[in-house]
Amino acid sequence: MNKLTVLFYITFFAAVHGLTEEEKMAIHEDCFSQSGVSEEMASKVMDGVFVDDPKLKLYILCFAKKVGIMNDSGDIQVDVFRAKLGTKVPDEVKLNEIIAKCAIKKGTPEETIFALSRCTHGNKS
Ligand SMILES: *[C@@H]1O[C@H](CO)[C@@H](O)[C@H](O)[C@H]1NC(C)=O
């Protein structure tokens, strides 16, 4: 993936709001190499396709931790999530609905953040 593609596709996550391009690239490069996810899989996320793949989950988890949406205990940081998502979903009622529906703790941190991402994406428009 070239740099422009990467920037485009990680901007897709409301999570990167407020970061500089350098910060976004750094997070991507770190998480990309840590998780071992394939470019093809990662770029599918752009189309809203969250393939149920362990490496993709690791990528998203790494990402979420770096931007502060999830902490090291695997707990969703609801305030951070709300602040980031609020930049894409200005309607407070809708925002609260999404949080109530999507910020649900699952069995593992990977599952939690994967479900949150998929759920949030399905709710955005
Ligand atoms: C993670 O967040 C949860 C709830 O917000 C908190 O109870 C827990 O202590 C935090 N863990 C760490 C390692 O910061």
Automatic annotation (TrEMBL):
Q: Name one GO cellular component term.
A: extracellular space
UniProt cross-references to Pfam families, sorted A to Z: PBP_GOBP
One annotated GO molecular function is: odorant binding
What Gene3D superfamilies would the database entry show?
Answer: Pheromone/general odorant binding protein domain
The stretch of residues making up the signal peptide is 1-18
Superkingdom of source: Eukaryota
Q: Is Signal among the key words of this record?
A: yes
Q: PANTHER family from the entry?
A: GEO07291P1-RELATED (PTHR11857:SF43), ODORANT BINDING PROTEIN-RELATED (PTHR11857)
Q: Tell me its family.
A: Belongs to the PBP/GOBP family.
* Purpose of the protein: May be a carrier protein for lipids.
Tell me the protein's name.
Answer: Odorant-binding protein 5
Q: Which organism is it from?
A: Monochamus alternatus (Japanese pine sawyer beetle)
Query: What lineage does the source organism belong to?
Result: Eukaryota, Metazoa, Ecdysozoa, Arthropoda, Hexapoda
